[in-house]
């Protein structure tokens, strides 16, 4: 009975456990589950326990572990499970910065900055997270950022322009085009980079720059050479056509362009063009002194052009400003003085050109006529020199022709002499050759005679040696056989026919006939 009761209680406990687990998972899934979509984050605020209150976080910072308040860390996209009893859950969108814009971030919690400071060093998260209230010095370029909105406030800005007097200050998403540089004006010190407030000497090269409007402003200044001209206005008729004098020179409006009296009292007008420019290393000084290039042109280029031309032109007469050599001296003096004046202000000048000089017709015509007559005289002199030179040329040509003929005759004479010398030398060589041939023939005949004598002597010697050898042969043979008779017998035997069958037998003296019986059986029978 007790066993059944135990099994019943065990089954009830097991069933209760499954029910509790099911209720727990249902509670977690339906009440605690939070789904965070793409491009959003989950912000959490801890409410504290139900029965015993937790420690409230100070208002100037985010809550740490076991503190009541908003937590620093944001949860990314996905499913998250947090009990709504303990946690306040809030889905917040991520901050998206599009191309061409930057994000200027303000930190809303943290310690107060020292007096006089308003920029905060630091980042959105990590070990370098900002710890003070204020605007972050760092700006954030295009992209997606997961920043806690309780702590950080994003302000998205593009290109910002601010007019300060004659200067246009830019910040935000700054683009410096080719041919320009950026002059940086720091609005506060930057101890991390060692920069002080004010205009910086180092300029920004062409490119894209995210610039914090609260820290820096950029003056975009063109570098290279540009042209500035002071031109006289032309007189025109009612139809707007330019008027000309009797010599075809355009008539200038009195008082326009650069005008001054010459040292002989005539009113002179001229056009002047300056080719001037700015180098990148001088851009900061130009912004500091003048503000922009328009101010440089208005305050330096145009006034100095007029002043230098007037000062130098008033020292010269009208004739000197019209004639080429003295006019060139005036051009050189103006250019050099203008270049020196601009270099003191760190402005580069390439050329200073006096383009046209307007001289009154009453002065210009006599000068031009005198100049033309002088030119005509010089032309006549040159023509006379040319005729003289041409006559000299003709005489020289005749001399050349005469010299050519003389060279031909002399060449022919030398050729005939060389030919005669050649023939003489050839005959001498032929005679010498014949003499040498005769000498060689005689020497050849002597050699042939000597050859015949030597051959006869050699033949006789050989015959003698041959006979001596034969005699020596017989002498040796006789010695070998012991006596001349034995040798004769051997010679006799050698002369016998080969078909003869000769048998030898021994017989004593006087016993031939008696010994025939003993050899008879050996004799051949017929």
Describe the overall structure:
This protein is α+β, with helices and mostly antiparallel strands and 526 residues long. It is 43% helix and 23% strand. The protein has eight helices and 22 strands. It has a four-stranded mixed sheet with strand order 3-4-2-6, with no helix packed on it. The protein has a four-stranded mixed sheet with strand order 9-10-8-12, with no helix packed on it.
- Shape descriptor reads flat
Estimated structural class: alpha+beta
Assembly state of the chains shown: single chain
Spans of at least 5 consecutive residues whose pLDDT stays below 50 are none
Total helices: the number is 8
Strand content: 15-25%
Question: What brief labels describe this structure?
Answer:
526 residues; alpha+beta; 4-stranded mixed sheet; 22 strands
Helix and strand topology:
Layout (H helix, E strand, L loop, with lengths): L1 H31 E4 L3 E7 L8 E2 L10 E4 L7 E4 L5 E7 L1 E3 L4 E6 L11 E2 L13 E3 L6 E3 L6 E6 L1 E6 L2 E10 L3 E7 L11 E2 L7 E5 L4 E7 L1 E7 L27 E4 L5 E12 L4 H7 L3 H21 L4 H5 L1 H21 L3 E11 L2 H121 L2 H12 L16 H8 L7
Parallel strand pairs: 3-4, 9-10
Antiparallel strand pairs: 1-5, 2-4, 2-6, 7-11, 8-10, 8-12, 13-14, 14-17, 15-16, 15-18, 19-21, 20-21, 21-22
Helix pairs in contact: 3-5, 6-7
């Amino acid at each position: 009975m007790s066993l059944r009761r135990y099994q019943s209680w065990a089954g009830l406990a097991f069933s209760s456990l499954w029910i509790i687990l099911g209720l727990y998972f249902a509670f977690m899934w339906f009440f605690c589950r939070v789904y965070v979509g793409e491009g959003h984050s989950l912000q959490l605020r801890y409410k504290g326990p139900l029965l015993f209150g937790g420690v409230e976080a100070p208002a100037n910072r985010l809550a740490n572990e076991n503190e009541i308040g908003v937590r620093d860390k944001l949860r990314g996209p996905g499913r998250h499970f947090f009990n709504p009893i303990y946690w306040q859950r809030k889905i917040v969108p991520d901050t998206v910065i599009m191309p061409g814009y930057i994000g200027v971030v303000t930190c809303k919690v943290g310690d107060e900055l020292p007096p006089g400071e308003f920029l905060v060093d630091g980042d959105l998260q990590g070990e370098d997270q900002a710890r003070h209230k204020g605007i972050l010095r760092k700006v954030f370029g295009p992209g997606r950022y997961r920043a806690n909105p309780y702590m950080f406030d994003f302000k998205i800005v593009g290109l910002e322009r601010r007019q300060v007097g004659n200067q246009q200050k830019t910040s935000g998403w700054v683009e410096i085009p080719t041919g320009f540089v950026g002059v940086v004006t720091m609005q506060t010190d930057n101890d991390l980079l060692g920069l002080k407030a004010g205009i910086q000497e180092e300029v920004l090269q062409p490119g894209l720059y995210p610039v914090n409007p609260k820290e820096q402003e950029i003056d975009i200044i063109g570098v290279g050479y540009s042209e500035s001209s002071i031109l006289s206005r032309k007189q025109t008729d009612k139809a707007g056509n330019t008027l000309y004098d009797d010599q075809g020179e355009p008539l200038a409006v009195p008082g326009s362009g650069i005008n001054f009296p010459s040292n002989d009292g005539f009113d002179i007008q001229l056009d002047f063009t300056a080719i001037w420019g700015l180098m990148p290393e001088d851009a900061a000084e130009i912004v500091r002194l003048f503000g922009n290039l328009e101010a440089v042109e208005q305050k330096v280029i145009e006034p100095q052009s007029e002043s230098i031309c007037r000062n130098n032109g008033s020292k010269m007469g009208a004739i000197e400003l019209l004639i080429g050599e003295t006019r060139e001296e005036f051009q050189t003096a103006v250019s050099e003085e203008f270049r020196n004046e601009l270099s003191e202000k760190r402005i580069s000048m390439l050329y200073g050109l006096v383009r046209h000089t307007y001289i009154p017709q009453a002065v210009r015509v006599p000068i031009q006529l005198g100049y033309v007559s002088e030119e005509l005289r010089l032309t006549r002199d040159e023509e006379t020199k040319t005729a003289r030179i041409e006559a000299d040329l003709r005489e020289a040509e005749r001399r050349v022709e005469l010299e050519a003929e003389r060279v031909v005759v002399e060449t022919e004479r030398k050729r005939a002499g060389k030919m005669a010398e050649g023939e003489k030398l050839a005959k001498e060589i032929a005679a010498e050759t014949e003499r040498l041939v005769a000498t060689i023939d005689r020497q050849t005949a002597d050699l042939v005679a000597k050859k015949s004598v030597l051959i006869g002597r050699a033949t006789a010697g050989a015959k003698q040696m041959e006979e001596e050898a034969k005699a020596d042969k017989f002498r040796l043979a006789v010695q070998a056989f012991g006596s001349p008779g034995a040798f004769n017998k051997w010679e006799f035997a050698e002369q016998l026919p080969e078909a003869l069958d000769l048998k030898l037998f021994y017989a004593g003296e006087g016993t031939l006939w008696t010994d025939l019986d003993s050899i008879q059986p050996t004799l051949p029978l017929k």
